[in-house]
Amino acid sequence: MRNPFRYFNNSPDVIRLTVMMYIHCPLSLRQVEDLLHERGIDLCPETVRFWWNRFGLMFAAEIRKRRVRNRSFSRWRWHLDEVFVRINGETQHLWRAVDHEGKVLEAFATKRRDREAALRFLKKAMKRYGRPKAIVTARLGSYRAAMKSIGNASSQQCRRWRNNRAENSHQPFRRRERAMAKFRNAKTLQKFAAVHASIHNHFNHQRHLTSRADFKRYRSSSLTEWQNLMV
């Protein structure tokens, strides 16, 4: 594989740190610039923007590739939900598939939330992770219509409060949306949502479910893997 950092004067460690700070933390471009300046790294906000656009997809794809290898673990139960995102006065729908651990499997933006949009979303997620044993959804009719089309309607569950895991998974994305002062177009929304989902999964260790010692070990392991991406 060709070195993706070969034409850049800055070291790969600085680029990885910059992308991690901007994608993983609810920071604006200028806040990332200020934090890097405190570390003795002089960058402009447009450099931060260029780096996350250039390397964010590469890092996210590498992280996602490692998770897809264990497809059977992500086929137990999925939680599906969608949220509204306003872009220049128009409403976009961001669909998300979350597994039983709260890891975001897929993020997909569409203008509508009808049967065709739900079907495209489900096919895209199942092509990558396989068919799940159970799917928990809201009572939106598009889900049932789409799953009837692919012969998976018997696995749908719509019980009250069962889909809280998917609804809570939107919170980190909402925090990033506020920090970015919303999105400018649907293409940027789709790109950032896909990158943010993979990177958030990588650093999300559900610290409320583990001891402090285990959390520190998981965090160190994730940071080491991040520093070795694209090496």
Describe the 3D structure.
- With 231 residues, the chain is α/β, with parallel strands linked by helices.
- It has two domains: 12-69 and 205-227, no CATH class; 71-184, 2-Layer Sandwich (Nucleotidyltransferase, domain 5).
- It contains nine helices and five strands; from the N terminus they run αααβββαβαβαααα.
- It has a five-stranded mixed β-sheet, with helices on both faces.
- Strand 1 and strand 2 (90-99) form a beta hairpin.
- Helix 1 (12-24) crosses helix 3 (45-68).
- The longest helix has 24 residues, at 45-68.
- The chain starts with 11 loop residues before the first helix and ends with a helix.
- 29% of the residues are buried.
Brief summary of the model shown:
With 231 residues, the chain is α/β, with parallel strands linked by helices. It is 52% helix and 14% strand.
Describe the secondary-structure layout.
Layout: H1 12-24, H2 29-38, H3 45-68, E1 77-87, E2 90-99, E3 104-110, H4 115-129, E4 134-136, H5 141-149, E5 156-157, H6 164-168, H7 170-179, H8 186-203, H9 212-227
Parallel strand pairs: 1-4, 4-5
Antiparallel strand pairs: 1-2, 2-3
Helix pairs in contact: 1-3, 2-3, 3-8, 4-5
